[in-house]
Amino acid sequence: MADVETEFTKNNKDNNDNNMPSDFSYSIPPVPYKWLKQYGITNEEIISNKIGWSNIKQMLIFPYSVNGDLIFWQGRYFPKQKVKCHTKGNPANTLILLDYMQDNQRVVVVEDPVSAIKVARHAPVHCLFGSSLSMNNAIRLSRMYKELIVWLDYDKVGEAAKLAKKFAPLYIVSKFVISHDDPKECSDAFIKEKIDEY
Question: What is the pLDDT of residues 124-134, one digit of tens each?
Fold first, then answer.
């Protein structure tokens, strides 16, 4: 499960707008389940990340908690709408860190929860829920890791390069990945190869 840290935890907890949909369930219908499986997300990863479903909202829900308290959640619409995702809470001020590695000196930042789950198999990951990394979170990550790898979707390569350059003074190494496929679309072997390049 994601390790969520935030300096704004109390404010987020007190904000009732963060509440999950009333019908949230861990029973995921076939269409969103198939969508997760097409990216190779395992049942164990679905369970450990507490991914669920809201029939009222018609959303696949990715919740993020600390000490059992919900901080925020992001939902993806099924069927896909003009705006494909909806977020309740403030992820920009929250450090969403998937770190299953020990003694790893590098961290990868990615755009979305599914990419984060895939990449976290090979390196610690911070999910941006978009393409912006705040200075506050970049500093916090630099206290834990010596190397920063920015891996955004292919249409955001320019933004990835800018982020890597902007935060280079904080890290021994600050690089960005160029890949025609989003991280979630890549094989484990390709992800490992790209991370190990740095």
Answer: 999 999 999 99
